[in-house]
Amino acid sequence: MKSNDVMLHTLTRVVTFIILAFSVYLFFAGHNNPGGGFIGGLMTASALLLMYLGFDMKSMKKALPFNYTSMIAVGLLIAIATGVSSMLFGYPFLTQFFEYYQIPILGETELTTALPFDLGVYLVVVAIALTIILTIAEDDA
Amino acid sequence: MFDILLLICLCLIAVSILACIYRIIKGTSMPDRVIALDTIGINLIAAIAIFSVLLHTRAFFEVILLIGILSFVGTIAFARFIERGVVIERKRDQ
């Protein structure tokens, strides 16, 4: 049976980008507002899940050629590397630093080492959520 | 005075959620239950908006968008399951 999901496909394409923008906002707002790596990662995972729902596994594999299990390892490595990098300067493990910089477009911005750590959390959450869902979906129904 | 008005609105939303729960329990067909769940999500959005006015805080605004997104994704997943039997297809159109 040929299916025709024009409505679903059009809606999915638009809504996915709105959810991705919201997840990036949540990820960067986490320092001073509600948000952070965990909920931002879950929102990114739900945006990708919406694409998987609207389309099928084969075309999504072509569109997003990521290996989610190695993405877990990359996220953990980033989180550990931010912890170890403070040890190189003689401070204890996971000491965090912050400094104010002038960035061309954003103006004065506070850059912290908590952000790369959060990036690690974000990658791990996205990869684990999608690994669980896709592993369950891949068995023969 | 304004707070009493907001509390009355919350009670009305609670009544509407109860009506949706009745439809979920009684529901004559599966799509009825899915639509009732979706409506509960929308009512929850309204309730959280009223709560954040009541508590004078902006901390819950992300939650509003979050529930909207999650209820949308959930409803689409249920609709796929009812229509096709699978939630994520392996390959479209055979």
UniProtKB/TrEMBL annotation, chain B:
Membrane topology summary: Multi-pass membrane protein
Top-level taxonomic group: Bacteria
One annotated GO molecular function: sodium:proton antiporter activity
Keyword Magnesium among record annotations: no
Compartments (UniProt record): Cell membrane
Record field: transmembrane: 35-56, 63-82
Protein's UniProt keywords contain Secreted: no
Classification via NCBIfam families: PRK12600.1 (NF009248)
Protein name per its UniProtKB record: Na(+)/H(+) antiporter subunit F
Gene: mrpF_2
